[in-house]
């Protein structure tokens, strides 16, 4: 029925949210500010109408994965290659190009991509197409993990859901380039997990003024167990993710095989994402077991520690970021966090319209980004007990 009548957006939040100061006006609560500025999240228009021939999470996810978006959302980037202390590197892709917009104090969106993704992904380009063009004219920079987005791997180490150190290096470099610019963050899927984990680790010390988490798996162990327990999850989603990881491994095998504890032939036999992570990821990052890695990586443990305005956008029929493991209670506990859910949308889907489906999530992502960037300041409510814990 939601295909016909729409899937309403449901907000989950603390009874008292932080205060926002907007253009030197009277302080209002975070929730009230969002209510006034984000009609896609609150009010009569806060409803997602799925494309009628993409009626559930499986169809939405499949379309997001296999549809061709090469003819839309054209974004040009300038690339920086950033070295790491262990001899590796990752890349930063800036848009607009520096020839078009030299470094200045323009508010800047830092974007984190999903598993084996990069700045080329349609779910990134469709958002940046709006935020970097009039009337907003923001700058954006996509943080491409090691070996992603056609960047060369220089050391036998990729990236994982638990590893946040490269993001810190990226932010240090970005701040040197644009020291006076406001920084805002958007993370998708695995990138959302890395972002929220980082935000919880840093608390008030992050340079970001606000952030959005989209399609976050949150509890990596729980979501993996739920996925593997279902036939379609085990044979389609887990297998597809494993194939993507194996393709990435094969692309950089000449470097990765230098790791003394990796067995490339054994890794390439992995049939599930769990088997790949057990044979490769947890070995590279020094975890005793794959469950140990999954527990440490789960950003759900860090939601209560976030200290900037954070929107978490989730579809409850997401077959990858499973509903049962979304940290509803933690989001309701933290006055800095608002969780917005729709009953449909799939994984990084939310496609609407019949003939040429577009992503509905562009609207709330854009509205929230602008609402926080244009706000002047935010503080904790005086009677907020979160700082007393």
Automatic annotation (TrEMBL):
InterPro entries: AB_hydrolase_1 (IPR000073), AB_hydrolase_4_CS (IPR000952), AB_hydrolase_4_sf (IPR050960), AB_hydrolase_fold (IPR029058), ABHD4 (IPR012020). The active site is at residues 189, 318, 347. One of its GO terms (molecular function) is acetylesterase activity. Coiled coil: none annotated. One of its GO terms (biological process) is medium-chain fatty acid catabolic process. This is 11852_t:CDS:1. Belongs to the AB hydrolase superfamily. AB hydrolase 4 family. Pfam families: Abhydrolase_1 (PF00561). It comes from the Eukaryota. The keyword Secreted does not apply. Residues 107-230 form the AB hydrolase-1 domain. Keywords: Hydrolase, Serine esterase. Gene3D superfamilies: alpha/beta hydrolase. It comes from Ambispora gerdemannii. Transmembrane segments: none annotated.
